[in-house]
């Protein structure tokens, strides 16, 4: 393959991005569309927030595998291919806010881990029929590091990182690549509590090498790389977009 801007092109590719009603998934959906893909962005909300003109928004709860399966069938029937799946839908239920820690743990695993497995199961056969496949799972620095008060989230992201490696191997012979996209602290609805608290906001910024929080749009370039032929020899790995959080000692 020759080097150049062409390898980053998603022209004629069809992508599904879960968790696209806002935040990181929304930014990735816009980014993939900007690189030329036809993008279907999913969320439970009736509409996506902000400027979602670049992609096609569909209401879908990813924990409902029947609904997700029907939607994928409809997209494949209309488009004739599905090339890229970005699993960005995620929830966090901090233990102190959850009335029932066991229920919160199970609910988090259901959305952040089990649903990703089911979505991949549904989409991979479409990728095989189209002859191209890249799956991007949005994990977290919490996949590899301990964070307090949220065991379900940490366990779900650690499990998701491991699921990526398992699926990358299982689908390697079929040419479907599976990778983790690993955000650090990014300013979204999910992190609005710690961003609003000056002490926690500053502590998280200071913990990075770059000295600041990330913006959701800063995840889009890495997603384009992993979705496109630019990453044709990349599978089963973690791409950190964390301002240097995970690499920092002192
Ligand atoms: N922000 C960070 O600092 C950070 C750091 C590391 C990893 N992440 C990960 O990045 C991903 C996106 O998070 P974010 O920060 O952008 O949070 P966010 O603003 O809260 O967005 C979460 C998205 O997931 C969707 N979602 C949640 N449950 C869903 C379900 N059952 N079915 C379909 N969609 C669902 C939400 O849409 P609806 O509410 O409309 O369903 C929303 O679009 C998550 O996986 C998160 O764990 C975030």
Automatic annotation (TrEMBL):
Example GO molecular function: oxidoreductase activity, acting on the CH-OH group of donors, NAD or NADP as acceptor
PROSITE patterns: ADH_SHORT
SUPFAM superfamilies: NAD(P)-binding Rossmann-fold domains
InterPro entries found in the cross-reference section: NAD(P)-bd_dom_sf, Sc_DH/Rdtase_CS, SDR_fam
Gene3D superfamilies, alphabetized: NAD(P)-binding Rossmann-like Domain (3.40.50.720)
UniProt-listed GO biological process terms: fatty acid elongation
Annotated family: Belongs to the short-chain dehydrogenases/reductases (SDR) family.
Descriptive protein name: SDR family oxidoreductase
């Amino acid at each position: 393959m020759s080097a150049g801007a062409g390898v980053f092109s998603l022209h004629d590719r069809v992508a599904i991005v879960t968790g696209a009603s806002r935040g990181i998934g929304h930014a990735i959906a816009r980014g993939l569309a900007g690189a030329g893909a036809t993008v279907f962005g999913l969320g439970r909300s009736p509409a996506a927030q902000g400027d979602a003109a670049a992609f096609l928004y569909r209401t879908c709860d990813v924990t409902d595998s029947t609904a997700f399966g029907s939607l994928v069938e409809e997209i494949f029937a209309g488009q004739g291919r599905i090339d890229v799946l970005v699993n960005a839908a995620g929830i966090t239920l901090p233990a102190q806010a959850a009335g029932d820690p066991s229920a919160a743990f199970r609910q988090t695993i259901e959305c952040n881990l089990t649903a990703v497995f089911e979505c991949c199961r549904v989409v991979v056969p479409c990728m095989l029929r189209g002859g191209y496949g890249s799956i991007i799972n949005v994990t977290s620095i919490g996949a590899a590091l301990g964070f307090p008060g949220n065991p379900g989230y940490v366990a779900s992201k650690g499990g998701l990182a491991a699921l990526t490696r398992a699926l990358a191997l299982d689908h390697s012979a079929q040419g479907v690549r599976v990778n983790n996209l690993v955000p650090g602290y990014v300013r979204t609805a999910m992190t609005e509590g710690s961003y609003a608290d000056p002490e926690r906001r500053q502590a998280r910024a200071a913990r990075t090498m770059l000295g600041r929080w990330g913006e959701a749009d800063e995840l889009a370039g890495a997603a384009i790389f992993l979705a496109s032929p630019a990453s044709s020899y990349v599978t089963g790995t973690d791409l950190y977009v964390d301002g240097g959080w995970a690499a920092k000692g002192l």
